[in-house]
Amino acid sequence: MSDTPNAQPPAAPGYKAAFELPKGLTMDRLPRSVQHVLSWLQPQDYRLLETAVCHLPITRDMVGVVRFTDAIWTVARNAEHRTVDRITGAEMDRFRERLDHAVKELMAVSCELAARARLTEVQQRYKKILRRFGYLKEEPAQEQPAPARRQAATAA
Predict the structure, then answer these.
(1) Distance between CA 102 and CA 99 in Å, rounded?
(2) 96, 76 in Cβ contact below 8 A?
(3) How far apart are CA 112 and CA 20, in angstroms?
């Protein structure tokens, strides 16, 4: 990275940056690991980064398990194409079903705790994932009544 204290991530030529550091945050104030990762990416790919903040050891464990599962799943999926010890599609489907069940169970426990602790603010921040797992129903769009003058014009 740059030695300049207020350096911004490098911009690709002719590209309008979709990523900007929050006001008052300079590149040198980011952790070195983040600076290192940003140095590998083009600015248009910064949107691909996702950060997990782990406040507790159990959170770090869960994130570690997810990273491990992602690595194993990727390699195992590619292992399907090997000729020796081939993993069949049906076998991979059974593993996928078990992983899906584990994710749904973790989501159910988290939602139960959120409901018990009345953490609606946190639930609002994670609406997208709650909606994806069916814990948040999509509100139907309410039809707005027509303005009074339009109602009067249609009645005449």
Answers:
(1) 5
(2) no
(3) 36
CA gap 22, 3 in Å, rounded: 20
Percent of the chain whose pLDDT exceeds 70: 66
pLDDT tens per residue across span 32-45: 888 887 888 887 77
Predicted confidence (pLDDT) per residue in 144-154, tens digit: 666 666 655 66
DSSP 85: T
> Tokens at residue 7, please?
């350096």
Q: How far apart are CA 25 and CA 29, in angstroms?
A: 7
Report the distance separating Cα 58 and Cα 84, nearest Å: 38
Helix extents (H) in 5-146: 32-40, 57-79, 89-116, 120-125, 127-132
Cα separation, 39 vs 103, whole angstroms: 33
Q: With DSSP H G I counted as helix, E B as strand and the rest as coil, what are the percentages for the chain, rounded to 5?
A: 55, 0, 45
Q: Cβ atoms within 10 A of the Cβ of 46, count?
A: 15
pLDDT tens digits along 114-136: 989 988 888 888 898 899 888 87
The whole-angstrom distance between residue 141's C-alpha and the CA centroid of its chain comes to 26
Q: What is the pLDDT of residue 1?
A: 45
Q: Report d(CA 151, CA 155) in Å as an integer.
A: 6
